[in-house]
């Protein structure tokens, strides 16, 4: 999916996560767990069995009490990549899902190259685990193979899938949701359930040129990509203007929803190279940063 030259550029990047978290394995991320890292954070009273190397003898000389130094532990971050595979993601040239898989491939590589754990899920009317949390750059081929098996099908029910992740993911981390967010039932409840569990969220709103610019005036038969329902419609200039206003309102509402909750939001279009999305759009949004 990705050229060797592009992978070399990805080596210089990392997924940014400001919020501390609790992990289980050593890695490169700041954790809420106390450990033996290099950044001092606090003291606590000595308890039998503690490592004597972390006693602060200067404090003992002043207070005649034994205190242990606590340091910020560096642990790996779990990044869950959720891809909407409902039938509407098949729309466009290139198809929104094909484009989304390329973006996900790049994000997965960045995460694995930075010692983060990566899990891959699909979202339709339920949540499906495509790849359990995996670790290390050597696992990228496995991640890429899992991506290649993903296909479209079914209807969108974002709320059920996101609530399932919130309920059953053992530990919160970063969740990246790649979707067109075209769910008649909405997205708020599912996203709020993840926030309530302490997830740090990034929403990547995927659109294609064919839905941004509606067809020209004339008589058209429209088909719902997910239900198969058809409708005859006459499109005129007034209809086009109304559609464009509704679409703009939908995007602005989603962006405002994210802004009010501290969620990263990036809107991308399939007519822009996915390399540019990774190297420019996501960096401009602050979601991806250069390592050095």
Blueprint (SSEs and pairs):
Layout: H1 4-10, E1 13-15, E2 26-35, E3 39-45, H2 57-63, E4 67-75, E5 78-84, H3 96-113, E6 117-123, E7 127-135, H4 140-148, H5 158-168, E8 174-179, H6 188-196, E9 200-207, H7 209-212, E10 218-223, E11 230-235, H8 237-260, E12 264-269, H9 274-284, E13 288-290
Parallel strand pairs: 5-6, 5-8, 8-9, 9-12
Antiparallel strand pairs: 1-13, 2-4, 3-4, 6-7, 10-11
Helix pairs in contact: 3-4, 3-9, 5-6
Structure, described:
- By secondary structure, the protein is an alpha/beta fold.
- It has two domains: 4-12 and 77-290, Rossmann fold (3-Layer(aba) Sandwich), CATH 3.40.50; 26-75, no CATH class.
- Helices cover 34% and strands 30% of the residues.
- The strands form four sheets. It has a six-stranded mixed sheet, with helices on both faces.
- The model is unreliable at 20-38 (pLDDT under 50).
